[in-house]
Amino acid sequence: MSEPTGAEGPIEEFETELFRSLDRYFEVRRREVEQSIGRAGTEFKNFQEARRQLVEAEKELEQIQQRTAELKGEAFNAIVESSEASQLEEGVSELETELSELAEAEQSALGRKREAEERLRSLTGQDIGEHLAEASSAVAAIALAKAEEIDAFKDRVDQRFAEGRTSVLRLAI
Fold it and tell me: Which of 67, 86, 132, 134 is most solvent-facing, going by the fewest CB within 10 Å?
């Protein structure tokens, strides 16, 4: 853009002020886009943390279920292999203790899983994949539209000044 000189008339002064105002407007809009990207980033981090917690709880539940199945097999083997009642009682007692501990661990893991699922639902209010796709598309579309809007406007202004025939307000100079 050209700077105002002392020989400019009221139209040129008005155009200069208009361009300054538009520059400030576009700067504010650019900051808004950056802030919305920042907010989306925070939401994504919260989503990632909740998803990580959910995956960990599911893995722990799977491990508990596998160990429970192993213990059932061990209990069956203990019954089959035991020749004395005292051996059977001792084996069953050990298995009973471990099964009790596994049941507590399973309840704890289920609670963490429910909490993580609820947190994910509260963060998204919809299917997780849909939410991320919509958020990233919206941010990208806004940023692209604003960049194109600014570029198009600056091109029009530059063209008008280069032509020198009319002002931006389409008045003859």
Answer: 86
